[in-house]
## 1
Amino acid sequence: MFQTVALSGSRGERQLFSDVSVTVKPGTLLAVVGENGSGKTSFLRMLCGLLSPDGGAILWQGKDIRQLKELYSAQLTYVGHLNGIKDELTPVENLTVSASLAGDESSGAIVQKALEAVGLVRPVHRLPTRVLSQGQKRRVSLARLWLSTRPLWLLDEPFASLDAAATSYLTQRLHAHLNNGGMVVVATHQEIAIPTDSIQHLRLTR
Amino acid sequence: MFQTVALSGSRGERQLFSDVSVTVKPGTLLAVVGENGSGKTSFLRMLCGLLSPDGGAILWQGKDIRQLKELYSAQLTYVGHLNGIKDELTPVENLTVSASLAGDESSGAIVQKALEAVGLVRPVHRLPTRVLSQGQKRRVSLARLWLSTRPLWLLDEPFASLDAAATSYLTQRLHAHLNNGGMVVVATHQEIAIPTDSIQHLRLTR
Amino acid sequence: MQWGSLAEFFAMGGYGLYVWPSFGVTALCMGGEVFAVWRRHAAAAGSRDES
Amino acid sequence: MSGTGINWFKYSSPQALYPLAGRMIPWFAALALGLIGVGLYVGFFVAPTDVTQGDAYRIIFVHVPAAWMSMFLYVIMAIWAGLGLGLNARPSFMMAQAIAPTGAMFTFLALFTGSMWGKPTWGAWWVWDARLTSELILLFQYIGIILLRSSIDDLRRADRASAVLALVGVINVPIIYFSVRWWNTLHQGASVSITAAPTMAGTMVTAMLVMMFGFWMYSIAVTLARMRCVIVERERHPSWGKQASMPDAVEAR
Amino acid sequence: MSQPSMSEALRGVIRRDLLLAMRHRSDVAMSVFFVVIVASLFPLGVGPESAVLRVIASGVLWVTALLACLLSLGRLFTADYLDGVLEQTLLIPQPLAVLVVGKVFSHWVISGLPVVLLSPLLGLQFGLSGDSLWVLTLSLLLGTPTLSMIGAIGAALTLGLRGSGLLVALLVLPLFIPVLIFGAGAVTNSLAGIGSEANLSLLGACFLFSFAFAPWATAVALRIALE
Amino acid sequence: MSQPSMSEALRGVIRRDLLLAMRHRSDVAMSVFFVVIVASLFPLGVGPESAVLRVIASGVLWVTALLACLLSLGRLFTADYLDGVLEQTLLIPQPLAVLVVGKVFSHWVISGLPVVLLSPLLGLQFGLSGDSLWVLTLSLLLGTPTLSMIGAIGAALTLGLRGSGLLVALLVLPLFIPVLIFGAGAVTNSLAGIGSEANLSLLGACFLFSFAFAPWATAVALRIALE
Ligand code: HEM
Ligand SMILES: Nc1ncnc2c1ncn2[C@@H]1O[C@H](COP(=O)(O)OP(=O)(O)OP(=O)(O)O)[C@@H](O)[C@H]1O
Ligand SMILES: Nc1ncnc2c1ncn2[C@@H]1O[C@H](COP(=O)(O)OP(=O)(O)OP(=O)(O)O)[C@@H](O)[C@H]1O
Ligand SMILES: [Mg+2]
Ligand SMILES: [Mg+2]
């Protein structure tokens, strides 16, 4: 179980949100919505432990993540605004390295299956990522989710620049993760096709 | 009037599209759609003259743009994947500089109005763009359209990472431009709320 | 007191050209710093009052 | 990292500090003026002319205090920086920020007065002597810290990044001093050495010490004053937080 | 149709770059201190004997100027490339070579001019005096714009390539060598009491030559890099 | 729960960086050429007298090594920062200081090691011989890792700042100076027939010292930069 308690955060001189208390139970998804600049990205980075809150706390299984440190990092997979992939490496290399750094399985076959799952065809697997289109790069980045065995996923606008096919692959993957008892936090401008009983919304305002 | 004649293009060893002939009449919008990696961005950059075609030609008012050179550049406004704004400058400075470089009016009042038109509130106008959110940066980049008096607009996924409000501002602006006899080419994954008689679709396939 | 006259004092036994700039620049720097800090405070406090 | 029980430091302290500093400044300023005045009097009118160096030696009355303050202030600045990082205390960062320019200025003065002294005694404005070189590098370190801070406009990051640099630098200062000294002495015999100063008359030492204390008091006064600027500026640019206004700040002005 | 005049566009480009530099005024200060520090490194490596230092002074200071130019070349186009401003610049309806001149000029103001202004002081540190000091300054004043001009070609050619910091150094340094030789030679000659006019006029010729060709070559390279 | 062991994570980081370097093998070649070219500039600037060259050899070669390190510092974290890989690195469930050691090691392999391997050759160019050549190589072998280590702190502190190429130079060069002095001193001593053991052990001490503190300081700086 994953909780924020009276969390408040600011960037520069702006108070972005205050007193946010939400609980994400296993098998549920928290959709963080709000206008441009309302603080969704900042909220997610705070949940990762990359940004420190002004007040309040973030609890993983009841313990403060500031105490857990690396133990907490080992529980989550974060896909940010930025893709976190190396332009010069091929999709296969990118995925292999990041899976092995995360401690996930990274054999060739598994990586290949993950890339196919996001709809990248074979010839693309061996191109340098630099020449791929915006949407293809995003797909490579998201393919990590097909390798991840971590319970908590934090996703920042995963659907941006995806086409319809890729959007539906991703939705299915989220669904499967939730059915496995996983937890997901997504910042998004789009509707997510997930049953309403397993989704809750957090609306940030400006 | 703006035309492509039997245009074909490739990246690396891949043929992206071939024999594309479309005509964009004043007052109409061409929506370029297609899956991720189908070549939308490449097509648009070709229309700008940034990329040279493998075959065929692009005609502006019946003349080849390779002959027109700067005369053609003076007819278009391009908003790419990349925002084309300086992170260290404020939105106001960014817009002022790029408007004056484009030869558009760039007085303080006009720039301010453009920024307000994309829904950026006053205090944000004077922050360095670096600290803005993804969507706010995109809005700054799009604000150039409120200053532009050029007839041809080439927009690459302008709606990416915009929220609902910003999407509707932009749609209205496109509408107004078309009513003025302007021409627009948009690469997008989204539906655009524009009357069907002034829109045509170009679907690229992979 | 070893200085017979004002001129002798300024000559510094022939080393005036080195001694006086040293003291002068020191005074200038320290005075300048005080002035700069004073200006900075005035500017900061002033704009705070109007806002 | 933040917000764990030290809120007193974070929020109330600057407000208490502002008027406190305001009350302390006049005393230190007066002390500084008095001491420097006495020091100058003794230095120019009581201390005798030096046998070997003539009156050029009188530069010592600004040179040595400036050189001394330049090193002393660096250490103090690093201590504040370390405290700031350790306790996550904003006032400490602000002290460090306030000290840096004064330190850099004294370093410059030591260099300037030193080379003013060098020309008549050594015949050159500049030689690559150990002490001179390490003073020059100290100036670079000060400048690095000031420039790093001014290139970052997020205050929180600016504070902490320059604190890390100050701490790393303070380890470097003694290493530099000894390395440079060794480098030089191995190369050439001590053809130039400033430690070989003639045994000084008692009044000379007195004047120098009095000037030193004067500079010290000056540093405290000017640092506190700059600290007040920093407090006000941060309140105005409140990336430091949404805090109440400072009523006593206006009155203390 | 709205279209900026050539001088308007030129001014616009310069204005943005200098505005960016002034945003953090420390940027310019940085070039200054960089030069001072690097120049001071050499005595630390070589040893403090002033006879040796005077001989190597012109070489060291010229190499330093060259490195300051080189290190700041990264700023010339890379940032513009990454944030898409360069793409927009290519679409400005004016000859690209003219806009390049604007960018090179701002680069020189930020990275070259400070070295020129500082050189008398640094010369003193190395034991130069009187006449040689002035020749040093003059040679740098004539030579550094050429460096910026040539550097721009290299920066444009390597745009967007990995490790381009070093690659640009590789491409550009051989082209810098004539400037270095004439520049350092001018100082050496004046130290030896031989006139340095010949070297200085050669530097001037280099400048004119690069001014005529470099902006055009840079423009071509930029178009290729953005394909 | 899946969690990589510390050595696995370390190897992963090193592997990615070296893979990137090997992707364009020219990257490593570039460090080599940079050093060769800069070292060759000095004889051009200073003049060809071999007596002078021998005296300045150690200084020039050490300064060159130092600049090669400096120039490649930009690569250390900036690319990772811009493409979001650094963010992901911070989330790896292992102490950040350990991962930093991995990155610094790859940096040294790419920018420091080539200089070490080349140094005997360059030393010959400057007229060094026999013993001094070995001392030069050994001093570089001991000293360059320290440079990478210290440089990492500067690179992390200036991450994402404008004009950080020059800023990092400013921050880092004063910290490099002891290494420069001990390193160049070792060669000078051996030329003068004095033993160079003392200098070499000081270099070793600098390495151990920086190995103990620098990764930790870098980790702190990285966290600050990414806030
Ligand atoms: C640019 C040139 C110079 C610089 C940067 C410089 C720097 C310093 C520094 C840092 C100190 C304090 C060191 C300590 O107390 O251990 C100092 C002290 C001193 N300097 Fe200088 N100095 C310079 C030139 C000179 C010259 C030319 C003379 C006289 C010939 C001189 C005479 C002294 C004396 C007498 C002291 C104090 C006595 C002592 O602590 O040994 N300095 N200087
Ligand atoms: N130094 C600063 N001063 C003032 N405001 C700041 C500063 N830094 C960041 N901000 C503001 O904080 C907000 C950051 O928002 P964030 O990136 O979390 O938004 P978001 O909800 O992810 O938006 P988007 O939908 O556009 O991605 C922005 O509104 C930005 O203007
Ligand atoms: N050197 C190359 N070799 C092979 N294929 C290449 C090369 N360079 C680019 N490509 C391919 O060309 C296509 C470029 O597409 P482009 O960026 O125009 O797509 P897009 O339609 O804009 O996609 P998106 O919707 O994701 O933005 C990609 O499929 C990419 O894989
Ligand atoms: Mg966001
Ligand atoms: Mg695209």
Note: The radius of gyration of chain A is 17 Å.
## 2
Amino acid sequence: MKIKDLSKEKYLLPGTTACQGCPHALGLKTLGMALGDRFVLVVPAGCTTIIAGSRDKSAFKFPCLHVPFASAPAVATGLGSAFKKLGKNGIPVVWMGDGGSDIGFATLSGACVRKDDMIVIVSDNEAYMNTGIQTSGTTFWKAKTTTSPKGKKEEKKDLALIMLMHKADYVATASVGYLQDFIEKLKRASEIEGFRFIHLHSPCPPGWGFDSSETVEVARMAVKCGAWILWEFDGKFKISTQSKPYKDKKRRLPLADYLKRQRRFRHLSDEDIAEIERRIDEQWKIILALEKVFS
Amino acid sequence: MKIKDLSKEKYLLPGTTACQGCPHALGLKTLGMALGDRFVLVVPAGCTTIIAGSRDKSAFKFPCLHVPFASAPAVATGLGSAFKKLGKNGIPVVWMGDGGSDIGFATLSGACVRKDDMIVIVSDNEAYMNTGIQTSGTTFWKAKTTTSPKGKKEEKKDLALIMLMHKADYVATASVGYLQDFIEKLKRASEIEGFRFIHLHSPCPPGWGFDSSETVEVARMAVKCGAWILWEFDGKFKISTQSKPYKDKKRRLPLADYLKRQRRFRHLSDEDIAEIERRIDEQWKIILALEKVFS
Amino acid sequence: MIAKPSKGSAGKTGLWRTFKPVYDVEKCNLCHLCWLYCPENAIDVLEDRIVIDYDYCKGCGICAKICAKKAIEMVREEET
Amino acid sequence: MIAKPSKGSAGKTGLWRTFKPVYDVEKCNLCHLCWLYCPENAIDVLEDRIVIDYDYCKGCGICAKICAKKAIEMVREEET
Amino acid sequence: MLEIMILSFGGQGGVTAARLLAIAALNEGKFAQAIPQFGAERRGALVRSFLRISDNPIRRHSSVKNPDITAVFSEKILNIADVRAKTVVINSKQPKLENEEVYYVDASSIALELGLISAGWPIVNTAMAGAMAKVLGFNFESLKLAIGEIFSGRLAELNVKAAEKAYGGVKRWNA
Amino acid sequence: MLEIMILSFGGQGGVTAARLLAIAALNEGKFAQAIPQFGAERRGALVRSFLRISDNPIRRHSSVKNPDITAVFSEKILNIADVRAKTVVINSKQPKLENEEVYYVDASSIALELGLISAGWPIVNTAMAGAMAKVLGFNFESLKLAIGEIFSGRLAELNVKAAEKAYGGVKRWNA
Amino acid sequence: MKKILTGNYAVAEAVKMARTEFIAAYPITPQTTIVERLAEMVERGELSAEFVRVESEHSALAAVYGASAGGLRAFTATSSHGLLYMYEMCWWVANSRLPVVMALVTRTIGPPWNIHTDHTDLLTLRDSGWILAMSENAQEAFDLTLIGFKVAERIDLPFAVGLDGFQVSHTAEVVDIPEQEEIDRFLPERRRDRPFVIEPGNPITVGGLTTNECAMMLRHDMMRDIEKVGDLVRNSGYIRDYDLVEKYRLEDAEYVVVMMGAWCGDAKDAIDILRDEGVQIGMLRLRFVRPFPAKEIAKIDCKKILVVERDSSIGKGGIIATEVKSVADSPVQSVMAGLGGVDVGVEDFVAMFRRFVEGDLGEWWM
Amino acid sequence: MKKILTGNYAVAEAVKMARTEFIAAYPITPQTTIVERLAEMVERGELSAEFVRVESEHSALAAVYGASAGGLRAFTATSSHGLLYMYEMCWWVANSRLPVVMALVTRTIGPPWNIHTDHTDLLTLRDSGWILAMSENAQEAFDLTLIGFKVAERIDLPFAVGLDGFQVSHTAEVVDIPEQEEIDRFLPERRRDRPFVIEPGNPITVGGLTTNECAMMLRHDMMRDIEKVGDLVRNSGYIRDYDLVEKYRLEDAEYVVVMMGAWCGDAKDAIDILRDEGVQIGMLRLRFVRPFPAKEIAKIDCKKILVVERDSSIGKGGIIATEVKSVADSPVQSVMAGLGGVDVGVEDFVAMFRRFVEGDLGEWWM
Ligand SMILES: Cc1ncc(C[n+]2csc(CCOP(=O)(O)OP(=O)(O)O)c2C)c(N)n1
Ligand SMILES: Cc1ncc(C[n+]2csc(CCOP(=O)(O)OP(=O)(O)O)c2C)c(N)n1
Ligand code: SF4
Ligand code: SF4
Ligand code: SF4
Ligand code: SF4
Ligand code: SF4
Ligand code: SF4
Ligand SMILES: [Mg+2]
Ligand SMILES: [Mg+2]
């Protein structure tokens, strides 16, 4: 779909509480562009709780149900049943942070195993931002947070591959740096029945420590240096166009360019960076193998 | 290790409440044989709660802490810290049912992501047995349970592969049909630091509907027909000796022999069996690919 | 308590700006990128130009960064 | 409430039996398999034979099934 | 109000017997209550279930402590439980009991004959229910209807047969 | 007891200024209390924080409703908030205010000069704290110590400078 | 029609006859047979509801919340640890004012693991905004489930039907089941637009941030509305008459026991025995704990009141006694008994009540 | 030494000075800064504890449970939804009789989402067996955390220190910090063998099935032991004197208000104002809710008592008022105020107390 043909309807209304350059805002604004009036958003606690508005004012031009932190996919299960029983055409879409996928991982896993009808999007800014930048399961190795002042000791949890092994009906990674790709994936997901999962990479200016103008740039650098791989599984496993060039390691952007742009990584040593590079190479090996198995 | 050299110490004391032919009892009796006096068992709700004894009488000759259903790996995290801080040499071993890994999946996932020091064993009898045979995430496709009187509609959750994608330090599958293999895996796991996971296949006579004398036989048939694949990951991914022959589909036992032995599968049609076979083939493809990637 | 769609759910967020995106219609090729990537949805695309809603534009600077034509420039806001 | 290791935490579970494993030392090659796979840990291996603890053996029949030598046979218990 | 205790091994169907008799009692125009063992049953372990029958609504829900009648589903039970009731109904060929009134029937043989076996155990619940129904003075029809409510098809038939045989065959023991 | 309200935009450091002044007050031998905006701050949004200073222990914990002094960290705030206090301290070159006592200082310029900038914003908290310390009649040393408690290294130095400049530069406005 | 049903099957039967549209539940003894029975009914086509095999109680109530927010009549059931595990959702559902019905089969909270009845679990809900009923037997469990849907949907608050683990849940007894048409007349289809409609295309946001005043007003309104439950129950139009309390031989009672749950039957038998001996004793049975029948208790005019309860608030005493004392005019004495499912039968009550009358009863009966 | 600290930082400081060995916690506003501060202390080496970044509150308390069962001095902190999410574990820890200490930064339970103070969350623990303290300011939050460890380890019950969200947690005020040596003398190392030792090689099983009687006895013993808290607190040997209640201008009071938490400071200022006007009013402040200071309340002898509370039990009324009424001799009136964090300041209290004295105060202050 060409950019000019995208819906001009504003599903996220200007004047929200989101910080300047907020990646969630970028993701949220595209949801309606992809799904139109066919969805209800289910939102557990997180920055989006605040972005959604307050009192009688909603920042969204689509329905939204706020739910407890660990509950979102299960709520979507019930909601989806209601749509079906009452003959309403619509998809429950869960929009959660990476934190929501920590505390709510059993819920997520359960809904996936049941193949309940929904789209789950984890907008991953790699920390608990709403409570002030604490380490989450998906926080990048060595990234500094308020609960890991010297940098996180464990590796980033790979949600998308884990959901793939859950045999979800649709799994994709996406990035706020490539909104058209995200929109296309949302559309594809909306055409499939069952449990659909999208892991959206969402660089956060105050949380990662970069200027609010650089959200899109930083997101793209993650893809270009190979640290974030865009792919899609809908029965077949495909590496997305934007990531294809980086199958070839030589074409990747220097990793340090991406990392050094962010305050949370400013303390990294060269060895650290080399180690991250090694892990990225490992990751590509797995991804390429999966591309073969599910071809 | 030769069978005759195995420890003769009885860590599970005769006269428990376990049903005749109980697979958990088989697994539990071997724990001490593999780990000696170096562990504490952490047990969430499940049949093992009952097997453990009551009042002042414990069926175990090792320490055991009963814990809430969803909490076990987190409790083990705390316990392990205590061992370290107080200079005690020991491993917290979580022994949970498949049900425990449903409700407690976030807990399990969290402990794994943190690489907390423990061994987690999921003794998988493919249903909530203690409450009377209800469907769990790992219940086999089409198996009848009291909450799925016509057979389960969703696929069995593949815990081991999911934990592998979690980057656990050690992951293995095992079976109560091959206790020596299980003991060896436990020993290997005990020599590695970090988060170690074993998915133990535990056919349950009353739950699956076969005679109490057939627990070991049914467990072995699962391996021989290729439905349960024994493998191990400790940095490298290896298919275990007992499963190696069945890489070759032709050498596998007819699937129907395994399924028809169990009351829960008595209603299967030939198409159902063919479908299961197809899925088993798929599974082998993935396993063989992983063997390559992590070689 | 039920909330309904409202512009400015956080008030006039244009007040948050320290830098202001200033648009030069001459340089613009109407590629739509600024519109797509404005997190505030504060940009509209008309026939022949884009329009920035300064009541709500927070001045993040993403539009300026993404514009290949350098048709948007960030300039320091006046304290008023 | 703290529990300590005790045989028969569920009482004399030998009472549960409907079938009883009967051992024939002649046929036995002391392979240890019955010992390893007895879920009740009710089998001991001595120098030259195995011993079944009928106080606790529940009569599941696994030992008989696993014995390649058919040295264990399950026979119906008498009602007493 | 009659208070009855049923002693059985897990797998023998003591709880079902209590339910059957409660339904039968309802069919007899009475009020009844069947209380299963409170707790986790494991196949093979001793199970206590209770039955109350009355002409008036039964309000109490506590367990039966001093039964008027005790039913014993296996003679082995006598080794581990004291049987204290005026009346006893026991699955036995030859009961060794000294209670005031002892009734006996060979329920195991009836079950085995009819092939009512599960995991090696003869399922004696319907036979024992038959014997108890007789001792309680119920019409057999009331029990038969009850069996039809809980079992269906061929299993119902067999169980009715078992109950009928025991209903006819239960005897007073004179020590 | 003096009750003070600080109005700032998120990112300007209003909450920190309150803390600094509370510590400074303690250093002056007084009791003090700094209350941040109760709620979720987002960079850019209006933030209200409170400060109480007293010779006696301060027991109350409610927010300040009728401040004796209001500090305004940006003139833009005047467009969205009513400033009602006898005394106002404002970051401004030329305050357009009619309150009884208006003090002003060009805190933004001080911050910019010293390079105290984050995400494009001049961080005016220490400068404003300096101005307020002066208005409150504190010794500069008390504030300096406070800054040393919260900041360290080069940042502490710069902030002390900013505070000092404002402490010296704050003026009474005569409309 | 009269049937022999366990309390759990009676609840399942009521859920079916209520034409419940959505069920999500997680097994836990002694609640499990409710869920199993419902699963069976659904798979057999006897009940046209969605049945979701969730992976935890938190998700059970979350799914029920979603379904109810979407407009469906929804049900779940649990016990003790299950309730504690879904506790956050319980509050969420109440504050969302959704008319969910839950069966709560009371069970002791561990450790030690113990599956027997104890009312402490039910009482953890007493602040939350749930309407809390406690049945004495299978018949009431059946009736209160149906009344529960009606009342809940009238005032948009969730409704929990308590029944004692095993003593009611697993005890098979006589239950009189009305005709389906009678139930249909009593309980029409749920109004889909109450308290709000979440559906695609209707761009409202529910549950988000508000002002503190709104949050306070919410609780105020809940408090106001729950007080309507008494009238709603009394005038529900159900086949049998119900009220918040049951009065048993209360008219001329000099001694009054206040209790709830299954053991009230045993206690009534004990009261009859004592009455025969000339002791003027009666019972006020709490059929509802929320709303708390304060007026009914304040009206008791007797020598002394004894609250017998199967619960405990560590560091305070009996939970119900505290509440009864807070409103009663007559002197109130408290005894905690039967905790952890300890069996308390007719003989116990006779002895207990005798000691109460004689004035030498302690705080614990064990 | 006097410092300006927020309530949360004061708690973190106390946890450090207690030489806590294990910390697991999950962020939630307004508790988060406790956890962040502790993480910092641990990473800087100021505190030699294990700090675990768990994935949920249920796991936070589960990990703390494991560590405490293993013999360590262990701490966690949470608020509202976090507490509700770990609710099952709260009961488990109490029934296990483990001396865990938790900071509970009070916050309103949603929906709507609201991060401001409300005491209903803390009070959900009131039956469980936790000792419940509620501090008025940062100093008390500091002191009670230390006293908490001491008392908890003496009687093997967990201890929760409440502090009002934002009003105490985020308000920086003067806190007097003792020397480390003083604390070390006050709080020696934890006895590793209490209440049991779980360690490799010691084959005991804890928490498993028991008889009903054992389960009941457990609760009985907890009830007995928690009553010792009053004496333990009074004689704790801490640097400052503490008691279950604070009496403010109570001696000759004809009107007594009973309250707890941060706003008591405002209320005291209001009392001073009214006293100046000649109104004989005073306060009994509940520093502990569990054990409930029943004796202290029973002793109040005045014209009437007003319970002002920031909580609600829907279908009953104010939670504290119910409890106070259950033991007080003087007439008790109840007012619910400040729910959802609604700000109630000195002027409000002056007006409220005036209306109380004059007899025209309703049940709600809004
Ligand atoms: C049970 C529970 N625990 C904790 C919280 C507090 N909480 C609210 S949002 C949040 C972090 C959210 O992080 P994430 O999901 O990554 O979303 P983000 O804020 O980064 O968008 C936390 C911990 C809560 N609301 N509920
Ligand atoms: C929070 C909570 N929910 C439910 C239960 C009830 N429960 C106890 S054991 C069990 C099933 C256990 O199944 P699994 O883990 O597979 O172990 P198994 O019994 O099969 O060995 C359930 C649902 C519980 N104890 N706690
Ligand atoms: S912290 Fe990050 S994710 Fe959260 S609102 Fe701000 S920019 Fe968006
Ligand atoms: S139900 Fe199965 S797993 Fe449970 S005790 Fe019996 S045999 Fe073992
Ligand atoms: S990005 Fe630049 S060129 Fe493209 S539409 Fe916007 S202003 Fe015009
Ligand atoms: S500066 Fe940011 S908010 Fe303003 S128009 Fe550009 S992209 Fe949108
Ligand atoms: S399995 Fe058979 S041969 Fe082997 S030791 Fe046992 S009885 Fe002897
Ligand atoms: S029958 Fe079963 S319990 Fe008995 S000895 Fe053989 S294996 Fe062991
Ligand atoms: Mg996040
Ligand atoms: Mg299982």
Note: The longest strand of chain D covers residues 19-23.
